[in-house]
Design brief:
With 405 residues, the chain is an alpha/beta fold. The protein has 13 helices and 17 strands. The protein has 2 domains: 3-30 and 295-402, Aspartate Aminotransferase, domain 1, CATH 3.90.1150; 38-292, Aspartate Aminotransferase, domain 2 (3-Layer(aba) Sandwich), CATH 3.40.640.10. The relative contact order is 0.16. It binds pyridoxal-5'-phosphate.
């Protein structure tokens, strides 16, 4: 599929939003959905619906096969070794909570140290904080440099004899910094340290190869990947998923249940308790097919051209201050305008149909470090164009005029 035809695949761009064409620059928050994904949800509910993994009737078996097909597609897409290393969750937040909770139950001990970074989203901090409270583990922070990057050297500096686990974002949802995950994993493994990756912003925009990255866990958010909401993926190395205890108890995750004992199901059922997000999983197969039809190399090239273009525009726009200048950067442009609250920026841009996000983007630690309460964030997806970024810049100028800047 050609890049310039992609916007047409997303029905939302046919809509007028408050009489404007939509300039959607909030994909780091959640991406828009291509028609094939929306249609697949409709088709499944209207023609094929059944719960999965339970009944033996025709619809149930067919739905189970479709559900498992998506697991295979995800496995291939991220080049995991084994299909059973793919666990569906309700989001990346749940995936990260699953990892922290199960490692907390059976692996991490009082006094052990977990190393995260100042770039982390609350989803990759709060679950570790729970363990700080319940198990007395210590959390250390790798600090950003002046470009808002996390270097391998900084990670190395913060590793101590007690570091048991490193949990890092693949791509910062505020500065766009892409972390050297492969190198960090090599370093960590050479010291017997586990690596967890928050891949929410990595998965939609970067080429993923779990066997090459070699991390122990990788969390994916499907709604940022042109897929449905209510769905995430946890990749976990088989040895960990086999060794760790289940996260939630209920139907589907057991093998045998007696009054005096319970044994748990095999992977991946062990981690998929209760009725899962069946329609979302089945439709997510179309998101992967959609990304494959474009080709991840093309996605990466298109988005890196866009971010370079946007960065240049905003750098030239006086009174706009971009946050961070990482060498290796994904499609996120966070900025402030002195004298204008980011919520005002977002509200004024919205009047022109330009949808951005304002706030701390679930990264209060980073905003504290930068000494700002909030920022405005424009983030790109596969459907964006240079014209969208021109409109962003134009609307920022309109905003500046209102504030006499
Ligand atoms: C870096 C990062 N981590 C975690 C999350 C949470 O993902 P989910 O919405 O799938 O729970 C987000 C979503 O904003 C994110 O950007």
């Amino acid at each position: 599929m050609k890049i310039d035809q992609i916007k047409k695949e997303f029905p939302i761009f046919d809509e007028k939003i408050q009489n404007n064409d939509l300039v959607y620059l909030d994909s780091a928050n959640s991406s828009q959905k291509p028609k094939i994904v929306v249609d697949r949800i409709n088709e499944f509910y209207t023609k094929q619906f059944s719960n999965v993994g339970r009944s033996v009737h025709y619809l149930a078996v067919a739905a189970t096969n479709l559900y498992e097909n998506t697991r295979t597609s995800v496995q291939k897409y991220i080049n995991a070794k084994d299909k059973n290393e793919i666990v569906f969750t309700k989001g990346a937040t749940e995936a990260l909570n699953l990892v922290a909770n199960t490692l907390g139950q059976s692996y991490l001990q009082e006094g052990d140290e977990v190393l995260i970074t100042e770039l982390e989203h609350h989803s990759n901090y709060v679950p570790w904080h729970f363990l700080r409270k319940s198990k007395n583990i210590k959390i250390n922070f790798a600090e950003i440099n002046k470009e808002c990057e996390i270097t391998l050297e900084e990670i190395e500096k913060k590793i101590t004899q007690k570091t048991k686990l490193i949990s890092i974002t693949h791509l910062s949802n505020v500065t766009g910094a892409i972390l050297p995950v492969k190198e960090i994993t090599q370093l960590a493994h050479s010291k017997g340290i586990i690596v967890v990756v928050d891949g929410c912003q990595g998965a939609p925009h970067l080429k993923l190869d779990m066997q090459e990255l070699d991390c122990d866990f990788y969390a994916i958010s499907c709604h940022k990947m042109y897929g449905p909401t209510g769905l995430g993926v946890l990749y976990g190395k088989k040895k960990w998923l086999e060794e760790l205890p289940p996260y939630q108890g209920g139907g589907g995750m057991i093998n045998e249940v007696k009054k005096d004992r319970i044994s748990y199901g095999e992977l991946p059922n062990k981690y998929e308790a209760g009725t899962m997000a069946t329609a979302q999983v089945i439709a997510f197969d179309q998101s992967i097919k959609f990304l494959e039809s474009i080709g991840i190399e093309n996605v990466m090239k298109h988005e890196s051209d866009l971010v370079e273009y946007g960065q240049e525009l905003l750098q030239k726009n006086n009174s706009v201050k971009l946050i961070g200048n990482p060498k290796n950067k994904g499609g996120v442009l966070s900025f402030t305008i002195e004298g204008v609250h980011p919520h005002d920026i977002a509200t004024i841009l919205d009047e022109d149909g330009v949808a951005i996000r304002a706030g701390h983007h679930c990264c209060q630690i980073l905003h504290d470090k930068l000494n700002i309460p909030a920022s405005a964030r424009a983030s790109v997806g596969i459907y964006n164009t240079k014209e969208d970024l021109d409109q962003l810049n134009q609307s920022i100028n309109n905003c500046k005029k209102i504030f006499n800047l």
